[in-house]
Amino acid sequence: LAGVHDVRAGDRRLDPRHAAPVPGAPTARGVWTLELRADRPLHPERLVAEVARLGRGPHRSRGHFWVPTRPDSVCVWDGAGGRLSVGALGTWGRQPAATRLVFTGVEDVRADLLAAFDDVLLTADEHARGLHPWLGADDVLAPWLGDRAA
């Protein structure tokens, strides 16, 4: 396998921080892929309230997101067939915080997913207020992500 298998590329594909659509992936027979990206975080309370809109359905999803109550935390998203797992992976380090979720499915629910994603994102006005008000707020994601680091 020496010289044939790119170990770094393989490791990168497993890392949720690098989730991306497969270039040239087929879209025949009703298969679709949707990439949802934003530099704004997800609103924690709206995420909890609306998670079923994004996590339920006949699709596969994976990627990463961030929330303003945990600005340094990389949050992982991994879903399949109506089941969703979220967790904390570590910190962003030198990489800027971002949200990137990739969905692939067979029942065309792309418009619904896009609407749900827009509803869950912090609005431009909320984001413009900065992160300071969020840092002391209750962490509604603690049951999913564990306790916040002090």
Give the CA-based shape.
globular
Helix- and strand-based class?
A: alpha+beta
CATH topology description = Hypothetical Protein Yjia, Chain: A,domain 2
CATH class: Alpha Beta
Computed over alpha carbons, the radius of gyration is: 16 Å
Q: How many DSSP-defined strands?
A: 5
CATH homologous superfamily title: CobW-like, C-terminal domain
Low-confidence stretches: none
Distance between the termini: 45 Å
Strand content: 25-35%
Give the % helix. 25-40%
N-to-C series of helices and strands: HEHEEEEHHHH
Nutshell version of this structure?
The protein has 150 residues and is an alpha+beta fold.
What would you note in describing this structure?
The structure is a single chain. This protein is an alpha+beta fold and 150 residues long. The protein is built from 6 helices and 5 strands; from the N terminus they run H-E-H-E-E-E-E-H-H-H-H. A hairpin with a 2-residue loop joins strand 3 and strand 4. Helix 2 packs antiparallel against helix 3. The mean pLDDT is 85. Pfam families: CobW_C. It comes from Cellulomonas hominis.
Give the key terms.
29% strand, 150 residues, globular, alpha+beta, five-stranded antiparallel beta sheet, Hypothetical Protein Yjia, Chain: A,domain 2, 5 strands, 6 helices
Topology overview:
Elements: H1 7-14, E1 32-38, H2 44-55, E2 59-67, E3 70-80, E4 83-91, E5 99-105, H3 110-120, H4 124-128, H5 132-135, H6 142-145
Antiparallel strand pairs: 1-5, 2-3, 2-5, 3-4
Helix pairs in contact: 2-3
